[in-house]
Amino acid sequence: MRNKRLSKADTLLRATDTLSEAGLSPLSLLIGVLEADNNDNALSNTRRNIFRPKNKGALVQILDLIMADRQGAETLNEWMLPHAVTLVCETIHTEMEAAKPFLHMTTAETTPEFIESWDINKIMDPISENTTPTWSTILSAATESKVCAAKAARENNKNSQVRHTTRNIISAQVHYRRSFHSSKVQIGLGLMAWSTGARKNLINVLHKAGISTAYSTVANTILALHKYSVEQAAKVSCGPHAFCYDNINISTSIHIEQRPGAMSKMQSGTFPVIYQLDNVDPFHLKLAPIIENFKKSKPLTMSDLRSSRTAQKSYEHQTNINIVHILLKHCTVVEFKKLIDHPSLQHLCRSQLPKGRKTQFYPIAVATIEEASVTGNLQVHDNVYIEQLGHDPETLGEYAIPTLNDQLTNARIRGAQALRAKDVNAWERREVFQLGFGIFHLIMNYIWLILQKHRGTITEHGSLASYFGILEKARLGSDKPDYYTLLAALTQIIDGLIVNAWRTECGVDSLEEYAAKNPTPADILRTADKIRKAYSVPIDTPPTVETTAPRKRKGQAAGNAELDPAVDDNTTDHTHSNTVLLTRDLLYAVELINAVSSGDFGRVEDILPQIACVFRGGGSNNYSMEILHLLHNIKEVWTPEFADIMRNIMLVNPSGLSGHHMPIDLNIEHLIGYLKALFAAKGLYSSWDRLGDISAAVKYLQLIKKRVAHSLASGYQGTSHKTPDTSVLVMRVANHAKAFQLQEYVKNRETQSRPTPDLRKLGYGKFESTSLAAFNKKIDTCKNGNNIDTETGEADELPQADFLDRAEEVDDDITIEE
C-alpha cells in the first residue's frame, strides 16, 4: 500500500530536518553544490541542472523573492551594486561605440542642407531611444526627481521639455568628449556662437566644455559653407536667375598701424546675391526679342503718366480698405474689430506672388571692387560671372538677366551699356542686364521727400514739425533722422488724421460710439470712400462765401467741400490745403508699404505714374526717371512674359511666411547690415579675403541662429512680449487736428501756414513741359547705339536721402585683430 501523501510544507520540513541532522543549512547546501569541483560528477551535474534554460524561471523567482523581502533586498542590493556598476559601464561602452556613426561629421561634410535641417532633438532623440537607452535612462534619473518624473508622465509640461533638450545637450557633450568626430551638434552650436559675435576665447572655452567645436574648426566650417554657396550659385546661374548687388564699406580701427602691406583704413567692396527664379520657362528670358522690341519702341506720352481706369479704381478701393483698417485698428470694441477679417473688407489682388513660396537666394563672396562708378560696375560683373561663377562670356548673351538695384547702381549700369554699345557681344555690351529697381529705396526716398516738403516749422499747425512736437519726437526734425522711427511717426500721424476724419464724418465723439451703431461692412466702405474723397483729394480753388466753414455741394463731406472757383487766392486756407496734401501723400506711402508686405507688385504698379509725378514735383529727378524707365520697359520693351518675371522678382519672401514679403533691395540691405554688425562685434581676421569667405556663408550663419533658437525654444521674444500700444499717440494727433480744425476749411484762419505745393500736379506739369521729352530723346539716342549721357540733364533739387544708419552707432571703428 502507498504511504500517505505529504503536503509541500511537510516535505520541506522533512528536508530541512534531514539537512539539520547532517549539520547543513539550505544555503550551505546550495553553496556546496555551486562550489563543487568539476571532478565530482554527481555534484557538477546537479550544478549544471540548476543553470539549465528550463530552470531559468526558477532562478529568477528566487531572486525576486529575495528582493521582495526587506532584509533580503538590503543584502542583495549591497552585493549587487559594484557588479551592477560594472555591467552598466560595459553596456554604456557598447552603446557609445554604436552611436559614433550616427554623430560623425567633419567640416567638409557640413552642407547647407544640414544647416537648414539642424535640430538637436531630431539629431539626438533617435540615438537616445534606439542606440543608447541605458545611458539615456541614467541621465533621466540624474536630471529629474521622481516627483517631477511622475508629474511629467501625467502632464506634458514645458519644464519636462526643457529637461529633455538639456539631456540631449549633455549627451552630445559626452559623445563629443569620447570622439571629436561625433560633432553634429557641436558644429551647429559653434556656428551659432560665432554668428552672434562670440569671440575666439569664448568659443575655445565652449570647445573645452564639449559644447562647440574649436575656433579653427568653426572657421573651416564657414569656409566649407562659402564653397557650397558659390557652387550652388554657379549652378543656379546656369538657368533662370536674377542678380542683385550693393556696396559695403568696412573701416579698420584707428589703433591699427597703417603700414605697407596692411589693410586700408577704409575698404569699399561689393556684395552680390544670386536669386533663383522658380517655375520660369527659359524661353521667356530670351534676349533677342527684348532687344528687337527696344529698337522698335515708341516714346512715352503724357497718357502713360495717367493711371488707367482699372488701376485708378484699384487704388481707390485699396485706399478705402486702408482707411477701414485704420478705423478697426484703433477701435477698442472687440466684436467690431473682428470685421477686419470680413471678405468685403480685404484688398484686391492685382499681381500677387504665390502664398507660401520661399525665395531662394545665394550670396557669393564680397569683391573688393567699388561699384560707385561705371568702370567699377563692369569689373563687378566680370568678377561675379567670370571669376567666381566660372561662366564663359560667349554663353552669357542668349538670355536676359533681371538685375534689380538702387537708382545709383542702375544709372551706372546704363552708363556701362552706353560705354560698351559698340562691343562684340551681348555680354560685353551688358545688354543681358534688364533693369528693375529696388522698391525699398523708392519708398525710403519717397518718405524723405515727404519729410522735406511737409516738414515746415513747429509753429505751423499741420506741418510735420508740429506733429513731431506733439508726439514728443523732436529728433525727427533733425537733418539725419532714423528711418524706421520716422516711418513709425508718419504712420501715427496718418492714423490720427484718419481717426479724426471718421469721427467728423460720422458725427461721433469716439470710434466706440460709431461701433455702437453696428454699421454693416457696406456702410463702412461707403463712409471710407467719402473720407478718401473729402480729406485726401486736393481742391485747387477756395470758396467765395464769407463764412468760417466752406460751402459744399449736395453729397459732399464737410471736411473738404468742393469749392466755388470764383475766389481770390488771399482767402485760401493753406493750413487746410497742406493737411489734405499731407493726407494724400501719406496714403500713397501706406498703400506702397501694405502692397509690398502682401507681395502684390500689381498694386505698386497701379500708382507708379502718380509716384513719378510726386518725385518730379518734389525735385527728385533720379527716381522719377527710374520709374519712367520701368514704365517704358513694361509697355514697349519687355515681352509680357518677361514683364511678369520682373514683377515677381522685385518683391521676395526669404521666410516663406504670408505677409512677410519685402523688396529685393531690402533683403540685401539686411544681409549687409548683419555683416557690418557682426564685424563690429568681432573685428576682421587675417585679410579682406576672409570677409569674402564669410559673406558667401552669411545666409547660413543667419539661418543657424534661427535653427538653434527654435531647437532650444529660445525665441527672440519671450512669452510675455506685447506689441507696444501707440494708440495714445494716435489720439494726440486726432485731437490736435480736431482742436485746430486742420481738416476743415476755415476762412481767414488766424494762424496761417506757408502753402505746400501739390507735388503731383507740379510734377505732371514738369513732365509735360520738358522732362518727358528729354527722357524720350535719351531713349532714341540709345536706340541708335551712340554713347550717351545717362542723365536727363536735369539735376536733382531734392537733397539725397540721408537717414541715420543704425550700424553707424557701432560701426565707426571696426577692430581688426591680428
From TrEMBL:
Q: Which segments constitute the DUF6589 domain?
A: 295-721
Looking up InterPro entries in the UniProt record yields: DUF6589 (IPR046496)
Which Pfam families does the UniProt entry name for this protein? DUF6589
The domain of life is: Eukaryota
Q: Spell out the Acidic residues composition-biased ranges.
A: 808-818
Q: Spell out the residue ranges making up region: Disordered.
A: 541-574, 785-818
Q: Where are the transmembrane segments?
A: none
What is the official name of this protein in its record? DUF6589 domain-containing protein
Protein source organism? Hypholoma sublateritium (strain FD-334 SS-4)
